[in-house]
């Protein structure tokens, strides 16, 4: 259907391009606030939709390593040292890093700074030296998807009289006697979807009368943030004291800054502390005070630090802080990228966070990582999904097909990867990220097995039992339903008598008078060769409980590489094992038929065929189910005359390479069913193209009127195509792009072939594909739009 471009909106000074929002002064903030609240006709709210976070923190949950079930009376738990990151990177809002909240397609290098190890982090502060810094939507989304709170920054600096007057404005009141900026700060949190502020005052008020209102202001802002949402927080930086109205760094909590400690949620200390400061903190606010409310600051660049010299010595400071029961605030962890360089960022950042080798001092020596983060559909249902995407890549893939052959960056798309993927292990199962071959996004998890070679046979036997197992994810998550679905997309090039097995570990917990583990089990999926073609399988396991006091706890996911001389077909069935005894094997006629027809080994998967084998749109193998939840397969292949054992043992040689493109676990009240996460098609008559005033190359593609897709809980992201060329992704129902970067356009209608910009053509064809939270792609309708 052809639609026409409406009359362009006129953009204000805040809206002249797609970039993240910040305010250089409080006057700018107030002007923006009144434009939005007054629904100013010159303000384009559609552009703002790309600057707002889509992922809500409340939708995600992760447990600690030691966390199990609710604590019983008189039972104590170890207190985990919490970690706050204050992100100070080249002044903030860097082009090709995070200034564009929808990412960069293309990107000069395909590399940017990001949190490689979010499992360790509790809170993230987006810091810059602008008066008010709003975290870019990409940072908020990425943090929330990993269970991390994301804060903006309010900062006052300088020692000139204009700086003092700017701070005076902070405590101005309206006619009702209320601090007028409090509601504006709270509105920003609600409007853009972040979780509070770091308040940093490194100047002073022009007079004591104004200064006397500061404590009340901080208390009012904290209370108002809590009233908006109880997850919101206000963090006070240790730099200003009252009533003396001056900058003074305490490096802890004393009577000089206790008033700000009391009226904020937590205090971020300055970096120049000593052991004496850590001891006095406990004396002044008590053990519970330091455990819950104090974050001891440390500058990774080493500026003024008295414990270590920053950099990789940061781990020593963390150990000292943990010893005195406080929490850690690391300032400028992008040092591993900014100072050491982006080319070796992965290696250097791994050394900083977890160490390249076992027992190497790192942040992980002091900070216990969280378990993997699950997406909560509701209070009782959840899914876990990863496509091993780091939010950047050399190519972009959809269902195994390369749709974009250029470097790109988009932090919104970052998903979880195993915490040990960059460890430098030399033998056994080795993990790596493959950025040349992926299923959805920019990378896949590559697993290789290298035989351990050692002259000591006893040593080899001992290690052979351990190096053939690798942990991928940990959960400690209660399953409220007995059906647990597992989805896996992988490719495997190897054919020997050894076999990869994916095992989802769980245990049964009995809660009656005491809490005890009564059984341990595994949901086991053998991974058979696919001749290096992508294959998707979904298996729904039914876990049996003996009584109403038993509960299923999802524990972990691991990968095994096992030798076997048993080539019987039963070996390759998915099954449940409990306490090392097979208590139930899924009797699944369709699954046996799938194996016997040679879908893994024969049929379409010919060894001399190097092309991708793509799963048809909406027909992923093993993903279907009827109204009763019975699984079915949507593809079939020609039957093979050879037996399973013959097919398995044929071929072989070389190093076995397993690539995992995506992995999911589902435990939900309406799963499996045909309507579970059923995305609707983006229809052609819902797509509009809007020109941006004051930017001849700027356009907005909008499909917000598409009905059911407005329920974005099911959506992971959209894929946007113009004239069948992929141009980018979006988490919202619109995308802003610059047509000057869109060259070599394939025109819908015939006209001058020298024209290669959207501005120069008469018609364009737009298609929006939807990708749901289980990685399934729903192809949209083509929309042909008249440009003139």
TrEMBL record:
It comes from the Eukaryota. Residues 626-645 are annotated as: Disordered. GO terms for cellular component: cytosol. Keywords: Hydrolase. The keyword Hydrolase applies. It holds the Pfam family Glyco_hydro_85. Residues 106-396 form the Cytosolic endo-beta-N-acetylglucosaminidase TIM barrel domain. InterPro entries: ENGase (IPR032979), TIM_ENGase (IPR005201). The keyword Chaperone does not apply. This is Glycoside hydrolase family 85 protein. GO terms for molecular function: mannosyl-glycoprotein endo-beta-N-acetylglucosaminidase activity.
């Amino acid at each position: 259907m052809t639609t026409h471009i409406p009359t362009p909106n006129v953009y204000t000074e805040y809206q002249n391009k797609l970039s993240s929002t910040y305010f250089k002064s409080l006057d700018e903030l107030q002007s923006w606030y009144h434009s939005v609240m007054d629904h100013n006709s010159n303000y384009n709210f559609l552009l703002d939709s790309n600057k707002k976070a889509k992922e809500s923190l409340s939708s995600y949950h992760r447990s600690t390593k030691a966390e199990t079930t609710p604590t019983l009376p008189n039972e104590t738990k170890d207190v985990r040292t919490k970690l706050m990151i204050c992100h100070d990177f080249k002044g903030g809002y860097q082009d090709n890093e995070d200034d564009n909240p929808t990412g960069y397609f293309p990107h000069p290098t395909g590399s940017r700074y990001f949190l490689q190890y979010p499992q360790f982090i509790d809170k993230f502060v987006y810091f810059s030296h602008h008066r008010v810094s709003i975290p870019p939507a990409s940072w908020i989304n990425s943090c929330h998807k990993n269970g991390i709170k994301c804060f903006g920054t309010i900062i006052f600096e300088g020692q000139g009289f204009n700086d003092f007057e700017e701070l005076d404005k902070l405590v101005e009141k309206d006619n009702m006697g209320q601090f007028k900026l409090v509601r504006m700060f709270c509105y920003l949190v609600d409007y853009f979807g972040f979780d509070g502020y770091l308040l940093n005052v490194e100047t002073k008020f022009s007079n004591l009368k104004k200064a006397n209102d500061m404590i009340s202001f901080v208390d009012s802002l904290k209370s108002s943030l809590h009233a908006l949402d109880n997850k919101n927080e206000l963090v006070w930086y240790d730099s200003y004291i009252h009533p003396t109205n001056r900058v003074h760094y305490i490096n802890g909590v004393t009577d000089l800054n206790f008033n700000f400690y009391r009226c904020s949620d937590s205090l971020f200390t300055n970096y120049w502390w000593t052991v004496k400061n850590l001891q006095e903190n406990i004396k002044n606010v008590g053990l519970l005070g330091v455990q819950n409310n104090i974050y001891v600051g440390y500058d990774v660049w080493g500026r003024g630090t008295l414990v270590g010299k920053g950099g990789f010595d940061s781990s020593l400071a963390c150990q000292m802080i943990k010893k005195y029961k406080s929490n850690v605030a690391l300032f400028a962890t992008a040092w591993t990228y900014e100072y050491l360089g982006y080319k070796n960022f992965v290696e250097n950042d791994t050394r900083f966070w977890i160490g390249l080798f076992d027992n190497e001092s790192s942040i992980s020596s002091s900070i216990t990582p969280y378990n993997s983060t699950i997406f909560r559909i509701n209070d009782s249902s959840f899914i876990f999904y990863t496509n091993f995407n780091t939010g950047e890549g050399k190519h972009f893939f959809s269902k195994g097909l390369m749709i974009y052959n250029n470097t790109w960056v988009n932090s919104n798309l970052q998903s979880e990867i195993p915490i040990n993927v960059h460890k430098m292990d030399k033998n056994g199962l080795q993990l790596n990220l493959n950025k040349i071959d992926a299923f959805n996004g920019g990378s896949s998890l590559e697993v290789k097995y290298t035989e351990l070679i050692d002259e000591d046979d006893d040593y080899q036997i001992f290690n052979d039992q351990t190096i053939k197992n690798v942990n991928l994810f940990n959960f400690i998550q209660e399953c409220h339903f007995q059906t647990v679905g597992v989805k896996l997309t992988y490719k495997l090039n190897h054919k020997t008598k050894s076999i990869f097995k994916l095992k989802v570990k769980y245990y049964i917990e009995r809660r009656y008078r005491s809490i005890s583990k009564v059984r341990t089990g595994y949901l086991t999926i053998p991974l058979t060769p696919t001749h290096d073609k992508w294959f998707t399988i979904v298996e729904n396991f039914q876990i049996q409980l003996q009584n109403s006091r038993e509960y299923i706890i999802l524990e972990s996911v691991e990968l095994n590489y096992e030798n076997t001389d048993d080539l019987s077909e039963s070996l390759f069935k998915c099954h449940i094992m409990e306490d090392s005894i097979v208590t139930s094997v899924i009797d699944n006629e369709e699954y046996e038929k799938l194996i016997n027809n040679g879908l893994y080994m024969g049929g379409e998967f010919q060894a001399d065929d190097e092309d991708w084998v793509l799963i048809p749109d909406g027909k992923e193998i093993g993903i279907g189910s009827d109204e009763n939840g019975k699984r079915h397969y949507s593809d079939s292949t020609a039957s093979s005359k050879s037996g399973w054992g013959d097919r398995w043992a044929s071929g072989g040689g070389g190093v076995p390479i397993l690539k995992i493109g995506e992995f999911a676990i589902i435990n939900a009240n309406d799963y499996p069913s045909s309507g579970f996460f059923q995305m609707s098609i983006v229809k052609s008559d819902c797509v509009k193209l809007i020109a941006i005033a004051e930017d001849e190359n700027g356009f907005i593609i909008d499909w917000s009127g598409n009905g059911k897709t407005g329920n974005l809980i099911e959506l992971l992201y959209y894929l946007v195509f113009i004239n069948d060329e992929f141009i980018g992704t979006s988490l919202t129902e619109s995308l802003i792009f610059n047509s000057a970067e869109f060259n070599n356009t394939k025109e819908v209608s015939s006209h001058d072939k020298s024209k290669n910009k959207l501005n120069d053509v008469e018609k364009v064809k737009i298609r929006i594909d939807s990708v749901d939270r289980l990685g399934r792609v729903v192809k949209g309708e083509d929309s042909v739009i008249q440009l003139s």
